UniProtKB/TrEMBL annotation:
EC nos: 6.3.2.3
Classification via SUPFAM superfamilies: Glutathione synthetase ATP-binding domain-like (SSF56059), PreATP-grasp domain (SSF52440)
Binding residues for substrate: 127, 150-153, 216-218, 269-272, 453, 464-465
Protein name (database record): Glutathione synthetase
Record-listed ATP binding positions: 146, 308, 367-376, 378, 428, 455, 461
Source organism (scientific name): Astyanax mexicanus (Blind cave fish)
Amino acid sequence: MSTSGIPEEVLRNEALIKRLEEVAKDTALLHGVLMRTKDKPNSPEVVNYAPFTLFPTPVPTALFHQALQVQTHYNRLVDRISQNPNFLQEALASTIKVDDFTAKLFSIYKQVQQEPQTMPIVLGLNRSDYMLDHSADGRTSLKQIEINTIAASFGGLTSRMPDVHRHILKVANRLQERQQILDNNPAAGLARGLAKAWELYGSERAVVMFLVEDVQRNIYDHRYVENELWSRDIPVIRREFEDVCRSGSLDSDRRLFVDGQEVAIVYFRNGYMPQNYKSEKSWEARLMMERSRAVKCPDISTHLAGTKKVQQELARPGVLEKFFPEEPETVALIRATFAGLYTLDMGEEGDRTVEMALAQPEKYVLKPQREGGGNNIYGQEICRVLEGVRNSTERTAYILMDKVQPRPCHNYLLRADAPLRLCVCLSELGVFGAYVRKGTEMVMNECVGHLLRTKSSEHNDGGVAAGVAVLDNPLLV
Ligand code: ADP
Ligand code: MG
Ligand code: MG
């Protein structure tokens, strides 16, 4: 099954696997691939290794580099979308009529737009995710699953993964494969973006505020980025929406203060799901932060640029050209990564989408405007849902997407709460982008690293935080 990855005889060597399992877990702990436990997510007294694969997963070198190369263009695309009110308005018009969460974000966007833009510093830290589609004719191509413009995670923990797999491969005496794992340090690159924006904000005492959840299972992932900032003498605080509600304020210049400290950057590691806003007060806090002079990562328009509805609208003929009128090469590079995306807006086009999905549901994924894994709809469930909403505007809360079919690969998944077993796995490659714009000038635009996540093929959906996928490394072949 594995195509020039770890040979089957190695995967089936029980004695070796047993030995490697123990080595692997200890190595992950030693290298700091850590997560707090489900039971005690806020206690540093009990930690565990974050779930990961025993072996790295083969990824064709050319497709890997294609994903890295298109990233700076995706950065510019997201930034341009965020500056185009007409596009955002039109793209999201049908969605916000039926999707409350997107509507609330959009209403903050509209309110902020009325105000004078005092601080034209924009910081974008995003992650574009892909699967390698394996078509019937045997070709493999890079297809984007989505782009995350808010709270894109695992840039920290994944920075430690190369050394973990290299050590496992050394113990397994797979010295050749060891060479096929690249260095990777998104944490450093994300921190570079934050540091640049902090510098441009221009106040030495002002802090970077990580806006976080009350459940802090994935805190170590944040800490890698945080500590990069501290090492540059940039102060960092961690606060929740509640804290901002309680002690946040704007001064007459709309500088943001929280607990008496001026905030240079609000780095959202929370705020992407409806459940994150526990009351109206959280929404008020979000509005206050958006209205402030602080750099928001992301600002509300960049957050909206990452919605699945926007992704679907971008796939319409002629739309990318509007964002890059003078750059046909850029358009071609970005478009080459698009999977089929279809509107469910009311009208003939949307009606055709419904018919198509009902006729062959296994070929598609039905997606609402949600983040964080576990929200998408697959197979027969697509028919059930669409039949319920096919003649109502409710269907416009969703988009339809071609189901990407990656080639499965055998691997072992290590997680604290489950016994080790050989799984048929599917992988998703993420690429981290960081950019900073001051006024009209892009002062930083980089691809800062990658993330490979692997899941058992029995799961359709879900990321690492959702408990489905685990951390991995590409083995370049
Ligand atoms: P989220 O914002 O919740 O992460 P995604 O669009 O990334 O939403 O979907 C979640 C997961 O569902 C992905 O990580 C992937 O495993 C699966 N998935 C999403 N879209 C597709 C697709 N078009 N083809 C195959 N799998 C998909
Ligand atoms: Mg997402
Ligand atoms: Mg995703």
